[in-house]
Design a protein that fits this description.
The chain is mostly beta strands. 2% of the residues lie in helices and 40% in strands. The strands form eight sheets. Strands 4-9-8-6 form a four-stranded mixed β-sheet. Strands 1-3-2 form a three-stranded mixed β-sheet, with no helix packed on it. The N and C termini lie far apart (145 Å).
Length: 219
């Protein structure tokens, strides 16, 4: 007596292993019992696409497998998709290759690979993204941050910022000056000097003396 099994495709897990039919065939030498059983042996087709994502303000990002999936299919039903690596930090900035795993209800599976490009976080106005400690940071006094920078920018000479989170620096008022960068205040002109314009880097003499040959009543 010889036994054999033929498997028929099934898409419902509860139907797998169900014996659909069996029959006996005979010849002059022996007999054969054939059993027809339902099963799903067809693997899904994994289809990937590349993506570009930014880190968040804390310098991390989790990539969803659905963002990589580009229409993976199965003859019955895709049960799950997942990535071999979905968590990224500043050390991953650039192009990274990930593997998408696609499975059906019967644990048939397929994989595909895709490039995930990681970019630094774009900090808002008043902040900068520090790539060393990998976190968005508020601009300190004496600097300004127009947004999207990776460091704070010192206020130019002739200007200042006295608060954290400045979008731009403030020009020194007339009568004051500031000759250094990255300052939190301007300095009043010393007695006998002046600055007639905003943004002065130094004060000038407050009075002027005619050359000797122009002095009145000079003999």
């Amino acid at each position: 007596m010889i036994r054999d099994t033929i498997y028929a495709e099934a898409c419902v897990p509860s139907e797998v292993g169900i014996e659909l039919d069996s029959f006996i065939t005979n010849d002059f030498c022996d007999s054969l019992i054939v059993t027809i059983t339902q099963a799903d042996t067809t693997a899904p087709e994994a289809i990937c696409q590349p993506i570009t994502v930014q880190l968040n303000s804390n310098g991390t990002v989790n990539v969803n497998a659905n963002a990589i999936d580009n229409g993976s299919t199965d003859n019955c039903h895709v049960a799950s998709i997942f990535l071999d690596n979905a968590f990224f930090t500043c050390s991953d900035v650039g192009i990274n290759t990930v593997i998408l795993n696609v499975r059906d209800n019967f644990l048939n599976s397929d994989t595909c690979s895709a490039n995930v490009t990681i970019e630094y976080y774009t900090a808002p106005v008043g902040h900068y993204f520090d790539t060393i400690i990998c976190v968005s940071t508020i601009c300190p006094p004496g600097t300004y941050c127009p947004g999207g920078t990776y460091s704070s920018i010192p206020c130019p000479a002739g200007s200042f910022s006295d608060n954290s989170g400045a979008e731009e620096c403030t020009l020194c008022e007339a009568g004051t000056s500031q000759g250094a960068e990255g300052q939190t205040e301007c300095v009043s002109c010393p007695v006998g000097t002046f600055s007639a314009i905003e943004g002065a880097v130094e004060c000038g003499m407050s009075s002027w003396i005619l050359p000797r040959y122009h002095r009145p009543n000079q003999l």
